[in-house]
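General statements about sequence and structure are easier to judge against a single worked case. When preparing material for the folding task, we compiled for one chain both its residues and its backbone structure tokens. The amino acid sequence and the backbone structure tokens for this protein are reproduced below:
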Amino acid sequence: MSHREPIKRFVTGHNEKGQAVLVDETPIPHKQILDDGTTFALIWSTDQAPADNSDPRDGAKPPVFSGKSHNPNGGSVLRIVDIAPLSPSPMHRTTSIDYGIILSGHCELELDGGEKRLLGPHDICVQRGTNHIWRNLSETEWCRIAFVLLEAKPLQINGQALGDENFPEGPKDN
């Protein structure tokens, strides 16, 4: 698998009789977000919870979600991130609960408290508003992670709200 192959996305819906049908089969391209080649592929997002399954908008296109950090802002986000060999993300925090599922490769998770763990295929990390880095330690292998983000209340520590910090800007067109 090439890290640059588009993700095959299949979206279901209903016909006028109420029967389930495929309404879209769109390959989702990757958008480079860091100079090292690291990419995002936005698969789907919603702008509310519960989601409206009658909404005809394509969840991979704006304005379904917005915000400098690409957080769900009231809904949800599903994206695939491909992290280049020997590359780290910036240290960052999101104001969401994130489910990170390693699909291929290995990636080190480092928390700002100094803890580190190496995660591999099928490992899952539940991020609860923590400040962290994802680091691909391999010299040759890309790491692919699926992230599901759901809106969360801002984290409060000692009476201070912790918000988004140092999140990569991401692709400009989604």
The domain at 30-162 is CATH 2.60.120.10 (Jelly Rolls). The chain has one domain: 30-162. The two ends are 24 Å apart (CA to CA). Residues 65-69, 170-174 have pLDDT under 50 and may be disordered.
